[in-house]
Design a protein that fits this description.
The complex is a heterodimer of chains A (293) and B (217).
Chain A lengths: L2 H6 L1 H5 L5 H13 L1 H18 L10 H9 L5 H12 L1 H23 L5 H18 L4 E5 L58 H7 L3 E5 L4 H13 L4 E5 L2 E7 L3 H6 L10 H7 L7 E8 L1
Parallel strand pairs in A: 1-2, 2-5
Antiparallel strand pairs in A: 3-4, 4-5
Helix pairs in contact in A: 3-4
Chain B lengths: L1 H15 L14 H12 L3 H23 L2 H17 L10 H22 L23 H19 L3 H12 L4 H8 L3 H22 L4
Helix pairs in contact in B: 1-6, 2-3, 3-4, 3-5, 4-5, 5-8, 6-9, 7-9, 8-9
The chains are: A alpha/beta (293), B mainly alpha (217).
């Protein structure tokens, strides 16, 4: 037996797990080899040290602890939550206050006329219906000489504004909608409208297909004449009378000059319409229907 | 050879001190009794589980203690092992193999707890001066000898801690838990021959480490 073989059998030898003849050979080698004998002594001491490790014994409450871990405390979740509330009283109070503020804010917002997505969608749907009723993709505007933005007011004015030397007669706006769309209301002309102010029919407007409709609420023929002169006096614009409406065809680049004719109450034009028409394209023409009422 | 003179009194003390693991109250454990208790637990007898705990508590506690080297931590770890065993008892396929199955659960828990504690720097904070890491040996030796004995055991523990996982486990099971080769084979799920060869390597490795790390011994 050589030294490596001998030392490899130390573990089995100390456990008495080798055959007797091998054990005898090993003992003979250990008696003859001092180096292996020293290693064997060290090996024995190491194993005996391991065997001498003291046995630790559990505490008396070991089993009780296991049963406590196995049996969950009744209402443990509720107790935990309550203790959390006690420990974090300020946090819980703040959370409740925040919740209350949130509820109140939601209630206020629900009651107030805020432009929500739903409202906007409804408005958009209404506008779409109007456009469909007009059957033309156009814009309209009312012009009251000397009475800026009067057409936007849906409530009857108690007294019309007057300027020296000029008589203005505001249109009857008792019927909502007729003030905004006096020419285009599919329900027909307001019943209280003067008989002399005949509206162009809807079919007429459809056939005209203007890009913009401006309704002029002039109180006298002189005012109508002045405005007609300005509209027809521009050599760059083409005009054509159609019933009570004057069709003006002008380059898109001169829309500002057209708007200036109406002073501070100049017709507002939707930017999307202008973009569609190509405002920056000088050669592009647009048609405006100016209706006198 | 100095190591021999140092350890010689230790061997004498060990012979008359506390019984080795697996003895004492646990000697009452027989496979038959364990199997009967396991079947009773499966039928809903909770007292039978308490009896099982009493049969295995010291062995499992020592296994845990040799991993974490702290009494409170070992107690908590051993309790967790029994709690896991109780909850998973219905998954035990062979009720005659409860012991091996319990040790498998125990080793898994020990590995996980050891890794967690090691990551948190727990073992670097313990020292020989720490009361929790010192060992109380019985016997009428002088305080100097007891102190030397404690120091030697602690050095061996520290050396074992530097060994790889498989070597450490087989040393714990065989030389600290006093298990037979067949039991170790079942627990680690390796052939008997592999148990012997691994044990031989682990023991030789420990011997060589002790000789190299502590030449003064």
């Amino acid at each position: 037996m050589n030294c490596p073989d001998c030392q490899n059998q130390f573990s089995d030898f100390i456990d008495a797990a080798i055959p007797l003849n091998q054990a005898r050979n090993l003992k003979e080698h250990l008696a003859a080899c001092s180096e292996c004998a020293a290693e064997w002594q060290l090996f024995q001491q190491t194993i005996h040290t391991l065997h001498s490790f003291p046995v630790q014994r559990v505490d008396a409450d070991f089993l009780v602890g296991i049963n406590e871990k196995l049996s969950p405390e009744p209402f443990a979740k509720l107790k935990g939550w309550l203790s959390f509330m006690r420990l974090h009283k300020l946090t819980a109070t703040t959370a409740l206050a925040t919740l209350a503020v949130g509820v109140i804010s939601a209630a206020v917002l629900q009651l107030s006329p805020v432009a929500t997505d739903q409202n906007l969608a409804e408005k958009s749907s209404l506008d779409k219906n109007i456009v469909q009723a007009m059957a033309v993709d156009q814009q309209e505007s009312d012009y009251y000489p000397g009475i800026p933005y009067l057409a936007q007011n849906t409530r009857p004015e108690p007294a019309p504004l007057r300027q020296p030397g000029i008589q203005f007669t505001p249109v009857n706006q008792s019927a909502p909608g007729s003030a905004h769309y006096p020419l285009l209301d599919p329900r027909g002309p307001p019943s209280q409208a003067p008989a002399s102010f005949l509206h162009p029919s809807l079919s007429q407007l459809k056939s005209l297909a203007p890009d913009l409709v401006v309704t002029v609420h002039a109180s006298s023929p002189a005012q109508q004449h002045t405005l007609l002169s300005q509209l027809t006096g521009n050599s760059n614009w083409q005009t054509q009378i159609s019933g009570n409406a004057l069709l003006v065809t002008l380059p898109c680049s001169q829309i500002s000059s057209f708007q200036d004719l109406f002073g501070p109450a100049k017709p507002r034009i939707n930017p999307h319409v202008l973009a569609r028409l190509g405002k920056n394209a000088p050669s592009r023409l647009m048609t405006v229907a100016v209706a006198f009422q | 050879m100095e190591l021999f003179f140092l350890l010689a009194p230790l061997l004498c003390i060990a012979a008359f001190s506390a019984p080795a693991a697996g003895k004492g109250e646990d000697t009452e454990d027989t496979p038959d009794e364990t199997t009967i208790l396991v079947r009773a637990v499966l039928q809903g007898d909770k007292q039978a589980f308490n009896r099982l705990v009493l049969l295995y508590q010291n062995r499992i506690y020592n296994l845990a203690f040799n991993y974490v080297k702290n009494e409170e931590e070992a107690k908590d770890l051993a309790q967790d092992i029994f709690v896991t065993a109780y909850k998973a008892l219905t998954k035990l396929r062979d009720d005659t193999k409860f012991g091996a199955w319990l040790y498998q659960i125990g080793l898994n828990h020990c590995r996980n707890r050891y890794k967690r504690l090691k990551r948190s720097g727990y073992f670097s904070n313990t020292s020989l001066d720490d009361d929790n890491s010192s060992l109380q040996l019985t016997g009428g030796e002088s305080p100097e000898k007891e102190l030397q004995q404690q120091r030697t055991i602690q050095l061996v523990r520290d050396t074992i801690a530097t060994m790889n996982e498989s070597e450490k486990e087989i040393l714990l099971l065989r030389d600290l838990q006093g298990m037979a080769y067949e039991e170790i084979s079942e627990i680690l799920d390796i052939p008997l021959g592999t148990v012997k060869s691994k044990l031989s390597r682990a023991r030789t490795s420990l011997k060589n480490k002790l000789k190299r790390i502590y030449p003064q011994l």
